[in-house]
Amino acid sequence: MVEEQNRLLPIANVGRIMKQILPPSAKLSLEAKQRMQECATEFISFVTSEASDKCRRENRKTMNGDDICRALTALGLDNYDEAIVRYLHKYREAERERAMANQNKATSCCGDKDTEESDQSGQPSRQADETRTPLMNIFM
């Protein structure tokens, strides 16, 4: 029983997703959540297994989003494939934008100081280090 629970999706997450679709006054029984938990877990396992088999045939160890999309098509689930491809595209775009924003933050906080004060030993002085944030010290 415990081993089976470890392979299933968390029931709280499944219930939360189910409630998003239902009217606010609707109630969900524990049995309904458990059945959906089992179905969703089985569906994910089914698709992941197909994608994993393809990766193994191609001698690859890392499965990616494109593998999942191809698995959905191979399993005849083209309707899901189109939605997943759109989501994957939006996700990758958001990740690129987030990476660019993080890069711009790092550049703007650290990029203007070309020279730093040093003491007689040639080492940067403590005074220069004290004006920097810990993050700036990592990049300098």
From TrEMBL:
What Gene3D superfamilies does the database record attribute to this sequence?
Histone, subunit A
In residue numbers, the region (Disordered) covers: 97-140
| Source organism of the structure | Hibiscus sabdariffa (roselle)
Transcription factor CBF/NF-Y/archaeal histone domain boundaries: 8-72
Q: So what family is this one in?
A: Belongs to the NFYB/HAP3 subunit family.
The protein in question is named Transcription factor CBF/NF-Y/archaeal histone domain-containing protein
Keywords in alphabetical order: Activator, DNA-binding, Transcription, Transcription regulation
Q: Which domain of life is it from?
A: Eukaryota
Alphabetical list of InterPro entries matching this protein: CBFA_NFYB_domain (IPR003958), Histone-fold (IPR009072), Transc_fact_NFYB/HAP3 (IPR027113), Transcrpt_fac_NFYB/HAP3_CS (IPR003956)
Q: Which residues form the signal peptide?
A: none
**Presence of the UniProt keyword Plastid in the record:** no
Q: Which PANTHER family match?
A: CCAAT-BINDING TRANSCRIPTION FACTOR-RELATED (PTHR11064), NUCLEAR TRANSCRIPTION FACTOR Y SUBUNIT B-4 (PTHR11064:SF83)
**What Pfam families does the database record attribute to this sequence?**
CBFD_NFYB_HMF
